[in-house]
Design a protein that fits this description.
Shape: globular
Low-confidence stretches: 243-248
Largest sheet: 10 strands, mixed
CATH topology of the largest domain: Alpha-Beta Plaits
CATH superfamily of the largest domain: Pseudouridine synthase I, catalytic domain, C-terminal subdomain
Distance between the termini: 32 Å
CATH architecture of the largest domain: 2-Layer Sandwich
Structural class: alpha+beta
Length: 248
């Protein structure tokens, strides 16, 4: 018996999030079904983090204990033969028996995509948020989030009474044509925090909110314009265990 780590990629559109649910299609549930066909007899696989309904991943980390007599490449191939078409496993490796993908992580990198067009685009909107009216220049807003702050105005803790303080290591906007991409890396995130950050920054870009209101809400949590960005634009890109992020 050994503990293995894999990287999971998935199109989250048709999943009710990552965490197993009795009567719903989830990432954890589908992975456990695939593992059961390989002889896995465990109670639960471990994931680095939860993703909401409709959220995608290219770098979700999963770990499980398995009696496996073949190579690592064969493990990934066997999993992919049993996983649904909107999921894939890669980079299988053996890890220590005490490895915990969630609690051992030092940072997580998320990417959010949006585009500014007046007419809907069903294919693009599967993986991005269509925003209209268009936004102004968002590139200076990422710096607001850097450092250790109380993000209570931008999300909620996963557990009642949990801390809302998080450390953001990097945050930036990039533009290519009509598309904007927001990348943010932090030690951890509150529930729906990235989608909330995107929503309020878009509001600033549309002139519906002032940038100073964002900085003020970090200094003293306060109510802002309500709303969150759609799940379709969000992807968990990487989970890091050594403090270094290399999304490529």
């Amino acid at each position: 018996m050994a503990r293995y780590q894999i990287i999971l990629a998935y199109d989250g559109t048709d999943f009710l999030g990552s965490q197993r649910q009795a009567q719903a299609r989830t990432i954890q549930g589908e992975l456990e079904k695939a593992l059961a066909k390989l002889g896995w007899k465990g109670r639960t696989v471990l994931l680095a983090g939860r993703t909401d309904t409709g959220v995608h991943a290219s770098g979700q980390v999963a770990a499980f204990d398995l009696d496996w007599a073949h190579g690592l490449d064969e493990l990934a191939s066997a999993l992919n033969a049993n996983l649904p078409e909107d999921m894939a496993a890669r980079n299988a490796r053996e890890v220590g028996e005490d490895f915990q993908p969630r609690f051992d992580a030092t940072c997580r990198l998320y990417r959010y995509r949006l585009f500014c067009e007046p007419v809907r685009d069903p294919l693009r909107e599967r993986f991005a948020w269509r925003v209209w009216p268009k936004v102004g220049d968002l590139r200076g807003l990422g710096e607001i989030w850097l450092g250790r702050h109380d993000f209570a105005a931008f999300g909620s803790p996963l557990h009642s009474g949990g801390s809302t303080v998080r450390t953001v290591h990097s945050a930036s906007w990039q533009r290519k044509g009509s598309e904007w991409t927001f990348e943010v890396c932090a030690d951890a995130f509150l529930y729906r925090m990235v989608r909330r950050l995107v929503f309020v920054q878009v509001a600033v870009g549309q002139g519906r909110l002032g940038a100073e209101a964002l900085a003020s809400a970090l200094r003293k949590p306060s109510k802002l314009l309500p709303g969150i960005a759609p799940a379709s634009g969000l992807t968990l890109v990487e989970v890091c265990y050594d403090g270094q992020v290399d999304p490529d």
